[in-house]
Every structure is written in C-alpha cells, then in structure tokens.
Design goal:
single chain, mainly alpha, 2 strands
Length: 92
C-alpha cells in the first residue's frame, strides 16, 4: 500500500526538532522521545505494540512517523522539520 504525499506530510508533521531539546535530534512532537530510540527498539526486535507499551505517550502514528522519517533519511532525502513549533519547547 502506497501512502499519498499528504499522508506522508501528515506523518512527518508529528516529528520536530529543537536545538534546545535532545541537542536538536528529531523527536516525536511534544515528547522527549527521539526518533532514533523508536527505530532502535524496532530494530532490536520489539514489536510496535511493545514500543507503545514502553512509551504510553506514543501513538501508532508516531511510530509510523519515525519509520517514515528513518526511511526518508536513509534515502538521503532532506526533511525540513518545523523548529520551535511545539509550545512545550518554548516553556522554560
């Protein structure tokens, strides 16, 4: 099943980056859960359900966003993230 460009954009909008949070590493918006953490958990054999159990703040769409981000980055695609778009980042 191929996702539309709009679906890709919707998933990638769940990821943000802020140089003051996790040293700018891409993360799931509104959390301190880095994309690489999700990808590493899946690569080590955890199921999506186990990742969601480990991090209840995540949704299935967040995991899908992390996978899409990783796929795009491995293809050397530039993905522009919204920086400072998360109000939680700006609070203290």
């Amino acid at each position: 099943m191929k996702l539309s460009a709009r679906s890709h954009d919707a998933l990638l909008s769940r990821i943000s980056s802020n140089p003051h949070v996790l040293r700018g590493r891409p993360r799931i918006k509104g959390t301190r859960i880095a994309v690489h953490t999700i990808l590493e958990m899946l690569a080590c054999g955890l199921s999506v359900e186990e990742v969601l159990e480990e991090y209840p703040a995540l949704s299935l769409e967040d995991v899908q966003a992390a996978l899409l981000y990783g796929a795009r980055m491995s293809n050397y695609e530039w993905i522009e993230l919204n920086v400072y778009d998360d109000p939680e980042d700006l609070a203290g």
